[in-house]
Structure formats: C-alpha cells, structure tokens
Inverse folding.
C-alpha cells in the first residue's frame, strides 16, 4: 500500500526503491570485479502483485563473473540460487532482488 492507502504501484515508489536496490548492488558487488554494465529493472506485476526487481550485471570477463558470484555468496544477504552456475551465467535471489550475472560478449 502506498502512503495514501491506494495499492502500491511501481510509479508510486520508484525512486526510493531504485536507490535501495542500487545500494544493495553496491554493497554486495562494490569493487569485487570489473563490470561492463549494470541495469536494475522495476518489478513487473502478475495478477496485481509486484514481482521482484531484477539487477542485470554484465561482467567484463569470466574471472570477474566468478569474483562477483563469490562476493554475492559471501555477502550479508541471504542468497537463494535460481540456476546452477555456468561459466558465462549465474543468477540468484539476493534478498528481495533477483540478480543475473553474465559475461560481456566479445566484439
């Protein structure tokens, strides 16, 4: 619910939550590895219920992806794995944020 009693929608609380999720990404991954890009997507609604937000982080190399994955697993946040780790991809639920790590494609 929003502060005005209406059902909460993404537009009603976007900025504050976006900053909170960006802070989680910073706290967990910080300077753990080189990244090519970071994207945080607003949660989509399913049957009127917001889904989890998604953080997509593209690592510069496979080694950086592994370092980022290790940082997530060692963080203070509960990590629930979404998929088995692969050399170029990893995903997990990190608290109330779904994190997808991948490796930058070669040019």
């Amino acid at each position: 619910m929003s502060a005005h009693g209406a059902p909460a929608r993404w537009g009603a609380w976007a900025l504050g939550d976006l900053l909170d999720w960006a802070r989680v990404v910073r706290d967990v991954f910080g300077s753990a590895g080189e990244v090519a890009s970071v994207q945080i997507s607003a949660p989509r609604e399913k049957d009127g219920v917001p889904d989890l937000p998604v953080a997509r982080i593209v690592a510069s190399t496979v080694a950086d992806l592994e370092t980022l994955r290790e940082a997530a697993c060692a963080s203070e946040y509960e990590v629930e794995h979404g998929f088995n780790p692969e050399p170029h991809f990893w995903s997990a639920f990190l608290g109330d944020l779904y994190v997808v790590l991948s490796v930058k494609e070669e040019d």
User: Anything to note?
Assistant: The radius of gyration is 15 Å. The beta strands are 35-41, 45-46, 49-50, 54-59, 79-81, 89-94, 97-103. The longest strand covers residues 35-41. The chain is about 30% helix and 30% strand.
